[in-house]
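Residues pack. Consider this:
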Amino acid sequence: MKKLLVHPNRRYLMDEDGNPFFYLADTAWELFHKLTREDAEYYIGTRAKQGFNVIQAVALAEHDGLRTPNPYGRVPFHSIDGVFDPEKPDLGGKYDYWQHVDFIIETAEKNGIYIALLPTWGDKFNQKWGEGPEIFTKENAYNYGTWIAKRYCNCKNIIWVLGGDRPIETDGQREIIDAMGRAIKKNAPDHLITYHPPGESSSTDYVTGKEYIDFHSTQTGHGLGAYECHRLLAATRQAEQKPFLDMESRYEDHPACFNENYDFYWDAADVRQNAYWAVMEGACGHTYGNHCIWSMNTSISKYFPYTWKSALLHEGAGQMQNLKKLRLSRPYFEFRAAPELIGDDKTVIARQSAGRGDKYAFVYTPFGNNVKVYLDKLGNNPIKASWFDPRTGKTSVIGIMPPKEALFTPSMSGKEYDMVLVLDLME
């Protein structure tokens, strides 16, 4: 696998040969903690076939990852009187905890997938909520960061992710993150590093100006704030000249606003909305998630309505590869947000968004509503217009248009009929 780098324009990622790398991730926070080797192979193989190139997973998992053992009865650290020491990893014997992590990382590499690896979930340094316990100080955070970075520094398919759904609220917490970030950057210098923030916030709220951060991430979350994700993404773009993406937006099959009593679960259309809104803002990729997969759920309930295996083939996941297909279909690194191409849109759930390159543009309409575009702002030559279907990945040509204000009408409208208007400036 290729080493990943930040492009010289400081907005996108590329591989060591200079090719675009569109970060298309699935969320599997409990992967190392919950799955057997056989299940991990099945999960990773399925995601590879669906076009994902990154899987996000946590070494010290959210669901009581220090005390509840993995499928082989192992926990990540040795403990004395119930106190876990992050400087004493569980090593030795068949299938020790870290051998299992090794196996899954190697399996991902064989399938052409990068692991966005969180050294720890955030409740281990800031138990604002969750099971914890808090185990890190700035000293052992540096030592643990050094140890885990050295263990995986030669794995080409690692992207490091600090944070873990928690804010930095105290000087002590900042010292922990800074120490871990410095240790990883020093001992795994060929790997990229980002920060996974809590809901409806950005890593720029916590780690702006840090040399160990290569690209930024948002969590636009699973509530109503996700409908206006463009605001958080635009603020992230403006805060610092680094690539950025939405690392956690509305999960497919997630109870809307965390409330299963609403009897509404975010679906494939909701997932697509956040994905295309993010990319039109200039994101360097996008992360998909399914509520029943991040948790590797095996017991059906109202809050977790499917098992992880049955959710693997839900339509939102399969449709994410169409986003990557579209984004890679035109000159990649010149793409930028282009709100000037369309009218000032005050709507929320039907908000249209646009992005462009030098001689092309994409306009996303999440409800298949009419699209008014100022084609003259793209150039003075004729413009070829087409519809791109986010559900199927198919393109249909509309025609050749003059460079003037134009109105485009999709053949169908409604929540399930989002479309992308593709505009190409002709020579």
Summary: The chain has a mean pLDDT of 97.
